[in-house]
Amino acid sequence: MNGIELIAAERQRQIDKEGFNAKHDADKFHQNGELAWAACYYAMPENLEITGQYYRLVILPQSLYPGNWLSKWMKRGDKDRKRQLVVAGALVAAEIDRQQAMDKTD
Asked: Considering 1, 25, 44, 95, which has the largest number of Cβ atoms within 10 A of its Cβ?
């Protein structure tokens, strides 16, 4: 499978096996950019160093701190790099689905 197919398959797995469909993702725990943050986390190289003038400190939403849903699911270390990128892509797709679902309710 190519990258798009791998991402689509992972997104479908998230829906079928985890129950993370657009309705689930539109709940109050996913409205502060958590899915996009999670995608960034998975896509970010593990050896990224945030130093120098090219990076700035970003204050994460409270919902991203340990003890919440995101920290429960963040298991980047147990996946190979390609798998991390596939999950990141699927999380981006999930955020797009969530945004579209929210647009329909407005």
From this structure: 25
What does pTM read for this prediction? 0.73
Pick from 60, 59, 63: nearest CA to 27: 63
Q: For tokens 């980047």, what's the residue?
A: 76
Q: Tens digit of pLDDT for each residue in 29-81? A: 677 778 888 888 788 776 655 555 554 445 555 555 444 555 566 665 656 88
- CA 40 – CA 63 distance, rounded (Å): 15
Structure tokens at 12: 């479908």
Q: Where do the domains of the chain lie?
A: 3-105
DSSP string, 72-96: HH--GGGS-HHHHHHHHHHHHHHHH
